[in-house]
Amino acid sequence: MDNSSTGNSNASDIGCSFDANLYKQITGSILFAIVWPFVVLDMKWFPLGRPAAALVGAALMVLFQVISQNDVYEIEGQKGNLQTMFLLVGMMMLSHYYDREGILKVVMLKIFGQNKPFRSIMWKVCLMSALLASFITNDATCLVVTPLILTEFIKQKRDTWELLPLCLSIATSANIGSSATIFGNPQNAFIASKAGVTLLQFFIAELPAAILGLSLNIGLIYLFIFIRKKILKSKEGELHITEPSIDNRDTAKHGGQIFILEEREAIAKGFEGPEDPTTASICSGVSLHKEREANAASFDQCEETGGTSGIMHKSTGLPAGMATSSENVSKDETTINKTFPDSVTKGSSFQDEANNNKDKNKKFRAIRQKIFLVWLIFVTLLMIVLLAIPHSVADFNLGCIPLAASIFTMLMDTILNRKYAYDVMVKIDWTVILMFMGLFVWLRGFQSTCFPYIVFKHLAPYMNLHTIEGVLLFSVFVIIGSNIFSNVPLVILIVNRISGLCGDAPCEGPLGGLLLAWISTIAGNFTLIGSVANLIVAEKARSSANFRVTFLGYLVFGFPSTLLIIYVCLPVVYYMGLLAAKI
């Protein structure tokens, strides 16, 4: 972050310290409390929806003068907020190409296969979400992966009870995986730039904890599935679970072949009535010729076996009553034999030339598609490398790099594949972007009440990061704060003050920043609103599978798993952070 942003942050702190407005404190707190249930719970009896609820909350903050109209433009235009929106827009566009080119579909087939048992799917979903999140952020991972997984889920017509564990696996694993790298989520990048944490220090302290946390999360997911199945069996008497039997596997195995045969039959039917007049005349001539040959054969058979009429025509050998028609047939055959070979020759040469042109076009198209696929992989790897470069060497922005990658990929797609760029831009999920815009203003309205700062100021003397009690109190504050108004706003609020949490002397080294990064990231798994990635999964589940991830449904798993993972791995982060400080 630049110096100007630091100055603004300090100015806002002074405002909270000395110029707290009683009207803003009361009104902002009331509006936050009124809107919060609609953002979190997604109530069926009042189907406002999370994106609309966030926008309503922002509008109410402006209407009641908690936030001024000019403040809205300043809030939306801040680097951190624009960075988040640029990141989402860029990854939405890139995800369209990943989907269209079949990159992630290959991964989906490896995960789901053909009606694999649910227990063999879950650990793969968790691992994929964590790995992707460590490279392309947790928000972008949930944005890309959730629709693909749920679409494959619907295609296989799996049991609906699997949807909740599936969504929980995507969201929680993405948050855990994002804790391993600086560019895994926005708050990590913000902490690294403000607290002076290098990439190597972050890896040393956070990567072992992330691996241990992911292992614990996978085990807890399986335990959750086991308990959920037991509860559903006791409630419904019998739970029908789609486990692939031998017959199902055989059907699944040959399903692709059946589809290919059906497709070929459809193609064959399409050629029965060709559009080309020349081809149509040739085909009709061939069919007429074959039909007359068959008639002639049947007549010969009648002659051999003897017909009802014993009078035969001399020239044709057919019954006298059929002589006239036979003569007409012979005349027509003579005419066809004179004209048909030329037309067939001309038609076949025309068809050969057309087929050659089609083959050439297919080859060129295949070459262009391969070049574009190589470009897409290259841009993705380059984006990851640029984001991994420490800020002390070069400042590659977490928002601009993905957006630039998507723009140049869109340009290459137009050049190579002749695809209309508009088809890509309509894939942007603007409801998610609008939800973010509303959250930024609504949460800033609550921050302007100064209550979070006041609470932190009173607890700061007891949050000594060199004592066990201080670390535990600090973790409780971060967990609660992250789930009241999300982890990114909390980090922005307190990151400049963690250097004063070491007693009388200021904190030295990256320990405070590393602890804040771990706790705030994993605390996002506590409730549905704890992380924006959770909200993205919930929105995509509703739009892709018409499934609602409820606040209580998420909390049942998120509450125990978050506490266990944070406090089991916290000593690892603490002692590895002390080790990293010496490097």
Task: Characterize the structure shown.
It is a multi-pass membrane protein. One of its GO terms (biological process) is transmembrane transport. With 583 residues, the protein is mainly alpha-helical. It has one domain (3-238, 401-581). Helices cover 76% and strands 0% of the residues. α7 runs antiparallel to α11 (199-236), α9 runs antiparallel to α22 (532-545) and α21 (511-522) runs antiparallel to α23. Residues 1-15 and 238-340 have low confidence and may be disordered.
- Characterize the main sheet: none
Structural class: mainly alpha
Strand coverage percent: under 5%
Mean pLDDT: 75
Question: What structural keywords apply?
Answer:
mainly alpha, 583 residues, disordered N terminus
Write the SSE topology.
Layout: H1 3-18, H2 22-41, H3 50-63, H4 69-76, H5 79-100, H6 103-112, H7 118-136, H8 138-155, H9 163-178, H10 186-195, H11 199-236, H12 246-270, H13 277-305, H14 323-388, H15 400-417, H16 422-425, H17 430-447, H18 451-459, H19 468-485, H20 487-494, H21 511-522, H22 532-545, H23 551-581
Helix pairs in contact: 2-3, 2-17, 3-17, 5-8, 5-15, 5-17, 6-8, 7-8, 7-9, 7-11, 8-9, 8-22, 9-11, 9-22, 10-20, 10-21, 11-23, 13-14, 14-15, 19-20, 19-21, 20-21, 21-23
